[in-house]
Amino acid sequence: xxxxxxxxxxxxxxxxxxxVLVKMSMIPPRKFPSxxxxxxxxxxxxxxxxxxxxxxxFLLYAAALARLPLNVAHPILxxxxxxxxxxxxxxxxxxxxxxxxxxxxLLVIAGVGLITAxxx
Length: 120
What we know:
Layout: H1 3-25, H2 38-43, H3 45-65, H4 70-93, H5 99-116
Helix pairs in contact: 1-3, 1-4, 4-5
């Protein structure tokens, strides 16, 4: 596997993990960090880790853009993160997984395959 694809995969995982952590940070008894209660703000580690992973995902996206065309890197990273979050939400939060979600993920994979076929 070449470095450009590894960077995209890491970007997808970083973005999706950040979304999962931010979701975790909003599940009671945790609350949105605010300056009015610094103890809550500092102890909500999933929020801060998720924020850091979003930053990491942005840096990986920038690195991917140095190696791939924008019209390839952006759809792959975005669609890959959407599909990964859909799967994480079912496994980690027991959210519903409708058959249309499954078909949507398959279509995303097919679309990414078509987009990347010419740059592989």
